[in-house]
Amino acid sequence: MNYARQLLDTYPGTVNIDADMLAATIDALSDCAQACIADADADLREQDLAEMVECIRLCLDCTDICTATIGVVSRHPGGDASVTGTLLEACVATCDSCADECEQHARHHEHCRICAEACRRCEQACRELRDALK
Q: For 119-132, what is the mean pLDDT?
């Protein structure tokens, strides 16, 4: 069992959303942020650095959006639904853009393939949580 789920199970208040879905989203956000940080760092070491600039930028954007979203959804989406929904929507869009870019480099750079996979998983998890909160 992961930490997100363990903490949800000990929450003294009411969680009005499926705890498994919420924990899976938190884990996907964390994994995506970590993958994007690692991918941006690996991109910086590639010989074709000029071709990697957009990938690096999108990875950094995705890391920032995922990190902000983790903070909000970890406090349970019982707060301001418009803030949570807006962050989840931004995460869906950013993960999609980052994955699209990483997929363009995936044939030549395994780290980009892995990052794209993490972004797609996060995109889907954020979409599902966003839809469940509506």
A: 96
pLDDT in tens, 35-65: 999 999 999 999 999 999 999 999 999 999 9
Return the SS3 of 12. Answer: coil
Domains of the chain with CATH codes: 3-133 (1.20.1270.360)
Chain centre distance of CA 17: 19
SS3 labels along 20-74 = HHHHHHHHHHHHHHHHHHHHHHHHHCCCCHHHHHHHHHHHHHHHHHHHHHHHHHC
**Which tokens hold the place of 125?**
């998890």
Q: What is the pTM of this model?
A: 0.93
